[in-house]
């Protein structure tokens, strides 16, 4: 039992170390992925990636990758030719916002990339802390198992009661 707990404990420690090391690579992956998704945006309520962008912009109160001007470099902006960003970039306190770039004060000023990276790093830290908590509980379980094992070998009270050829 102690050996199995030790194996699980070592696995959790490896996961914690790898999670901490690769936490820094999250930003690179998000940057690459977010560029691709923004370039494939095809308008509100069309396909899943486009709906995801609108959802993220509404929930995180952000617009574009680094700011709202990033939309100028997307295929959707060039094809629509209306000099506006998606309505999901509009601040909810502004009524009748159309996303036009002639009124940038109506739009969220912060880009989404930094906020997405921040959220992912927060989630990874929660996972790391949960793994450390379970690892410490397993360490206590290993310690208890070893104590019982050591006492069993030294204390005759832990000897097995085996009777041979006895019939009840």
UniProtKB/TrEMBL annotation:
Which InterPro entries does this UniProt record tie to the protein? Tetraspanin/Peripherin, Tetraspanin_EC2_sf
Q: Which residues cross the membrane?
A: 123-150
Q: Which domain of life is it from?
A: Eukaryota
The record's keywords, sorted A to Z, are: Membrane, Signal, Transmembrane, Transmembrane helix
- Which Pfam families does the entry mention? Tetraspanin
- Transmembrane helix as a keyword? yes
Give the signal peptide, or none.
1-19
Subcellular localization, as worded in the UniProt entry: Membrane
Topology with respect to the bilayer: Multi-pass membrane protein
Task: Please give the PANTHER family that the UniProt record associates with this protein.
Answer: TETRASPANIN, TETRASPANIN-3
Can you name this protein? Answer: Tetraspanin-3
Its source organism is Characodon lateralis
């Amino acid at each position: 039992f102690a050996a199995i707990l030790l194996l699980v404990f070592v696995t959790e420690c490896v996961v914690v170390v790898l999670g901490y090391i690769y936490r820094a690579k999250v930003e690179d992956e998000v940057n690459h992925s977010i560029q691709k998704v923004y370039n494939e945006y095809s308008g509100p309520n069309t396909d899943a990636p486009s709906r995801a962008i609108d959802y993220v912009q509404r929930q995180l109160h952000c617009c574009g990758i680094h700011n709202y001007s990033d939309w100028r470099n997307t295929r959707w902006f060039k094809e629509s030719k209306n000099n506006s960003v998606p309505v999901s970039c509009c601040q909810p306190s502004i009524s009748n916002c159309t996303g036009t770039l002639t009124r940038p004060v109506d739009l969220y000023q912060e880009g989404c990339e930094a906020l997405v990276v921040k959220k992912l790093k927060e989630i990874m830290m929660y996972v790391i802390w949960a793994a450390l908590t379970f690892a410490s509980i397993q360490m206590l379980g290993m310690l208890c198992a070893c104590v019982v094992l050591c006492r069993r070998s030294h204390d005759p009270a832990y000897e097995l009661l085996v009777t041979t050829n006895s019939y009840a």
